[in-house]
Amino acid sequence: MADWEIKKSLGQCSGTDREFEIGEEFVAALVQTDEGLVRQDFSVDYWNESQPEVYCFWKTRLPDPEEKKKLFIDDAMLMAFFDRLAEETDPEKINFRFVLTLILMRKRKLKYDSCKIDDDGAEVWTLKVTGQDRFGKVVNPHLTEDQIEGLTAQMGQILQADFDETQ
Description:
Elements: E1 25-33, E2 36-43, H1 44-50, E3 56-61, H2 75-84, H3 91-106, E4 110-117, E5 123-129, E6 135-140, H4 145-159
Antiparallel strand pairs: 1-2, 1-3, 4-5, 5-6
Helix pairs in contact: 2-3, 3-4
């Protein structure tokens, strides 16, 4: 498994290098590069004018370093990210989606339903989406505890959330 090198926000626009002001809204995005997914942040003005090509994005604000960090991340955004990764075949994205699945299961947004081995020998979980009449599937890449912890920490940095707390 390749290591994730996605950094947290640098506090400036990737398009203009202008530093964000405390409390300023900006667009955080994951951009596919030759090295994998890279986080880039864009001012709202730059985003609206340039519409950079990104893998996925979300709006956030530059936090005040003196304020207590908010631990809530929108569950709808996590589910949208889960759905967006559904057809990915890249091993890093499969691993990322599996850890996201574990987080969503802990948050009771997904419920384990069944498991089967597909034609390629992969273990595929079927999950019920809570409150909806639909199911999702996820490949279990059989990550070690250390790999899961590492990916969870990196997801927290990417999404500016603390997944140690159940929301």
